[in-house]
Amino acid sequence: MHDLERIGQAAKEASQYLARLAANQKNEVLLACADALEAKTDLILTENAKDMAAADPSRTAFNDRLRLDASRIKGMADGLRKVARLDDPVGEVLYMKTLPNGLQVGERRTPLGVVGMIYEARPNVTVDVAGLCFKSGNACILRGGSEALTTNIALVKILHKALASLGHPPHAVQLITDTSREAARDFMRLDTYVDVLIPRGGAGLIKTVKEHSRIPVIETGVGNCHIFVDASADLQKAEAIVINAKTQRPGVCNACEKLLVHADITDVFIPQICDTLTKAGVEIRGDDATQERFGGTLPAAEADWHEEFLSLVIAVKVVADIDEAIAHITRYSSAHSDAILTESNVNAQRFLAEIDSAAVYVNASTRFTDGEEFGLGAEIGISTQKLHARGPMGLKALTSTKFVIFGDGQVRA
Amino acid sequence: MHDLERIGQAAKEASQYLARLAANQKNEVLLACADALEAKTDLILTENAKDMAAADPSRTAFNDRLRLDASRIKGMADGLRKVARLDDPVGEVLYMKTLPNGLQVGERRTPLGVVGMIYEARPNVTVDVAGLCFKSGNACILRGGSEALTTNIALVKILHKALASLGHPPHAVQLITDTSREAARDFMRLDTYVDVLIPRGGAGLIKTVKEHSRIPVIETGVGNCHIFVDASADLQKAEAIVINAKTQRPGVCNACEKLLVHADITDVFIPQICDTLTKAGVEIRGDDATQERFGGTLPAAEADWHEEFLSLVIAVKVVADIDEAIAHITRYSSAHSDAILTESNVNAQRFLAEIDSAAVYVNASTRFTDGEEFGLGAEIGISTQKLHARGPMGLKALTSTKFVIFGDGQVRA
């Protein structure tokens, strides 16, 4: 705990420094960090090879996220350059109005202060988060997966050198190198110094953080996403959207996991979409009506409606109408991304108003739920909670506001 | 716990209903509630008299907040009528942009869902909170101080009848009638149903809620507010502002508790302001420099710089310059409301940028930190945290947003 206490204090001090930096000072640092990462490509690859050598070879998807190569390092550097080009959110005045007594009152964006991040063994997150926090004037404390520790230490050392070379405190970005479970728990109790804690990773990680954190948490990511194909949908577009949402990248949180089909179109659409899905290698788990209409369907269990498959599996259900579709989604959705495919404006508006999810779509693939796709420039995660930030979080989600008041001697009557 | 579980479930269900109400339906309810409260004035006074009869007569300020009379009941009713006149925040589209691929992406305001409120024995809070939550489409669960229970039961019964008479579920507003400490603790663990918990009251109450809540909390209220009188300040205006901020209503969170005076003006300003404060009945606790310049000064202890006095006491300190003032405030302020009095634009801008408080003032009394004074129309509390809402919280602080996306068959490449 002693060490974490020191890390927290140093972060708090750095955050006061960072809050005062001008955008061009911050951009200069981001560009210097990008150049430094590229210049040290060989060193980073040597350190990453040590992590890879210690990795369990059977975890292929996991190891793919852990592994770096020259183009991925260039990708991280380019990510920092892109963040440098984004507008600085700090200092933005959201509005300023003059009250009857002559007081001018407005709200002005400020950094949050100290951002804590707990994530899995993905070295690119280390650089992404450091860049986004720095640009938004926040100090950050990073706790990445133990399997990426050697890589992360190398990356943060390079960022520190770049910060120091421009005369800025390296404590703007700190890495917790004790990757024990105890240290993680202690980190979650650093509420004196850390303003927000963002877990990024699987459902288990997020649940643990929610349970143990004394720091306010922004919950991210779990996506049990639905597509409801309404009676009036354009079935050709519907097929393309469902296939895209399910198969384009099945392992991510905005992939479609559940398909609801209006009863009026089951005879046509169920055989059509199930055939195409099956040919694309997707396993279909269906309710009775789906099983009747498509031979290859496995029976869906109750648990399937709750499950985030993250693989080439989809559960399919026939619903009587939009009411049943909305009721089903309200009950089972993780409130990440849900879509209606319809040509009915009334139904589109109802779905938008009544489905209470971070992203609600009409006639498009759920795969678009992403900070870059939504035009935020970059993303630190996707919030599935309602407080503070919801959906893809860009730089603005890393800010707070304060009221600023200009007077000329006003006192309250 | 069984009973609270039921309350939570009923609130969740009601919240789904409330999210769909149009503004005119909500306003109709608010006006009906206002009329019902006025019509039942006698009943409310009878019930309130029971609470007053059981109250400890020695707690005069406490009892003053507990006591109702006809004009206070009219005040509560008028408060609801005022909330009815405010714009409905729900459904507001913050922006809508068209992306290169033709997708239209925007953010739309939604209710938070279920708002929990823990507060002291102030019956007006029951009605205020119910009105603000209802207008913003949220269900609320109220847990007021035990000393006001009989009054609160009567008030909520009247609101329920008005809701039911218009065909709406009474569970939109629920009161926890078990005022035991155990029930309060169980309430704080209802995170399955309650989206946010707002404690309103003294520092002790807020600390308890922060420590025990599993529901996300919005911290409110504690105000250790500072005024820094810079060397260039207009000393006549400064005197009026300090007197107003300290004495106009000393028991509230936006009252001034600390006065910092630039060293260059101590010889003139310390005797002047301390004399006026003393004549207004204010006790002065000062550092050495203040004690030297004003005879009636008591020595300030370290604890005084942290303390929220909430009474006619002020601590006064001489600082060498704006740097020392900013450092002192950064260290001791509760980050509620802090002011600089200065004619220097450079120093005003520095203070605004560097003081990290919910409300930062130039040349005005800190007493203005209030939802109505800031033009928000009403206020559910003053947030002193940085996540989600900061400073006076109006209807918008009771909302979240969701991304809404309109497509025409777009899929991700």
Provide a descriptive summary of the structure in words.
Chain A is an alpha/beta fold and 413 residues long. The first copy, chain A, is 43% helix and 21% strand. Chain A contains 15 helices and 16 strands. In chain A, the strands form 4 sheets. A 7-stranded parallel sheet of chain A has the order 10-9-11-8-7-12-13, sandwiched between helices. In chain A, strands 5-4-3-6 form a 4-stranded parallel sheet. In chain A, strands 1-2-16 form a 3-stranded antiparallel sheet, with no helix packed on it. In chain A, strand 4, helix 7 and strand 5 form a beta-alpha-beta unit. In chain A, helix 10 packs parallel to helix 11. Chain A is globular, with a radius of gyration of 24 Å. The N and C termini of chain A lie far apart (50 Å). At the A-B interface, strand 2, helix 10, helix 15, strand 13 and strand 16 of A face strand 2, helix 10, helix 15, strand 13 and strand 16 of B. Strand 16 of chain A pairs parallel with strand 13 of chain B, so a sheet runs across the interface.
Write the layout of secondary structure elements.
The structure is a homodimer of 413-residue chains.
Chain A lengths: L1 H17 L4 H17 L1 H14 L5 H7 L3 H16 L7 E6 L5 E8 L2 E6 L3 H13 L3 E5 L5 H17 L7 E3 L5 H7 L8 E5 L2 H10 L12 E5 L5 H13 L8 E7 L3 H14 L3 E4 L1 H6 L4 E2 L2 H5 L6 E7 L2 H11 L4 E5 L3 H10 L4 E6 L16 E3 L7 E3 L5 E12 L3
Parallel strand pairs in A: 3-4, 3-6, 4-5, 7-8, 7-12, 8-11, 9-10, 9-11, 12-13
Antiparallel strand pairs in A: 1-2, 2-16, 14-15
Helix pairs in contact in A: 2-5, 2-7, 3-7, 5-6, 10-11
